[in-house]
Amino acid sequence: MKIGLASDHGGFNLKNEIADFLKSKNIEVVDFGVNSSDSVDYPIYGEIVANAVVNKEVDYGIVCCGTGIGISLAANKVKGIRCAVVSDVFSAKMSKAHNNCNMLSLGERVLGKSLAIEIVEAWLNTEFEGDRHQKRVDMITQIENKNN
Ligand code: RB5
Question: Which of 15, 34, 63, 65 to mutate for ligand 1's pocket (most ligand atoms within 8 Å of CB)?
Fold first, then answer.
């Protein structure tokens, strides 16, 4: 499995902690930045990872900013992306099992490191259930197609 990671300055430390965790589990990481805590604009990094996901350069994307909100909003503007901002393990699992999210967004100013790592682990270990949920995910895609 290959994971694309990125953050703005607000998610820089958490992004690095997630990278270390994934590498410790022998999961391949593509780090799209940032590489320092200098102030940057989160939409740039949400879009970069989203494009890597839709172009299949990576299997999934994980992005971090201060809240997880801004960078997820940017990622979700890319056609084919379903990026969930998650702050608990249950929602992490559901965002994959029911919504087939291909990106996860976390807030460094919201979550402690341990919970963030638990969320990442739960999300990666959960499979999409398909079935009735596929129809609903397809409906989201139809909305995307209709409005683009
Ligand atoms: C940066 O200060 C902050 O606005 C950003 O990291 C994020 O929380 C935006 O949603």
Answer: 65
